[in-house]
Amino acid sequence: MKLIVVGCSGSFPSPDSACSSYLVEADGYRLLLDMGNGALGALQRHCGLYDLDAVALSHLHADHCIDMCGYFVARYYRHDGGRCPQIPVYGPEGTERRLATAYGDTPHDTALSEVFDFRTLAPRDRFELGPFTVRTERVAHPVEAYAFRIEHRATGRTLVYSGDSGPSRALETLATGADLFLCEASFTHGKENIPDLHLNGREAGELAARAGAGRLVLTHVPPWTDGQINLRDAKTVFDGPVELARPDAVYEL
């Protein structure tokens, strides 16, 4: 299983990175987790526009889903004249309505569903996509938001992606024993303290330690947050390998 960081900036794109988007590959199957601002362009460095097999959206804030509007255009108005078939798009309740509202005047009311097979997430979902088994948990965020645990069935290797979340027992449970924990770290320890919104670097490290994760990658660091401080804080409480996500980084599991 391979994880490719398409974009890792939180809240809005940085000069160096698109917003949250992560490509997970195994056995020729490609699953994209989130498609935030700027991600559609960056994605094309790693695969073709029509090479994705499924998309899973952690929640419906723009920095995690808004480039799905552009992706609709690419699939609906395919340049060779043939419309793309549907691919599964997993998201919270109301995902189709949210994207249609953001896009504006679609050709007709069901245009998005002609290329996206919308499927609604729920807490403790379990489903199979290609070689992966995907599990979900609802996490602590102001809107309905999910974390994903992705297991490659052939090898048993596991990746957990937090999405956006404040401290969450459900997220800790989902991350238990993960080989790689891709965890948000938007806040700075001792600076922001807003309940049920985001984690800081220390909290991400503590969560990874309690979960017994093998490796921690901090992501969703906004341009106004010093990622090196969050990295230092995580290292003080987590003994395993820890690093900051960076665009185009590749992790083999």
Structural overview:
The chain has 253 residues and is of the alpha/beta class. Helix content is 23%, strand content 26%. The chain has helices spanning 39-43, 62-65, 68-76, 95-103, 111-115, 169-175, 201-211, 227-235; strands spanning 2-7, 21-26, 29-33, 54-56, 87-91, 116-120, 126-129, 132-138, 146-152, 158-161, 180-184, 216-219, 242-244, 250-252. The strands form 2 sheets. The chain has a 7-stranded mixed β-sheet with strand order 6-5-4-3-2-1-14. The protein has a 7-stranded mixed β-sheet with strand order 7-8-9-10-11-12-13. A hairpin with a 2-residue loop joins strand 7 and strand 8. It is globular, with a radius of gyration of 17 Å. The model has no long low-confidence stretch (mean pLDDT 97).
What is shown here, in short?
The chain is of the alpha/beta class and 253 residues long. It has 8 helices and 14 strands.
Largest sheet report: 7 strands, mixed
The total strand number stands at: 14
- Overall, the morphology is globular
Give Rg in angstroms.
Answer: 17 Å
Total helices: the number is: 8
Strand content: 25-35%
Provide the helix percentage.
Answer: 10-25%
* Run of helices and strands: EEEHEHHEHHEEEEEHEHEHEE
Quickly give the structural class: alpha/beta
pLDDT < 50 stretches: none
Output the strand order for the largest sheet. 6-5-4-3-2-1-14
For the termini, the CA-CA separation is: 5 Å
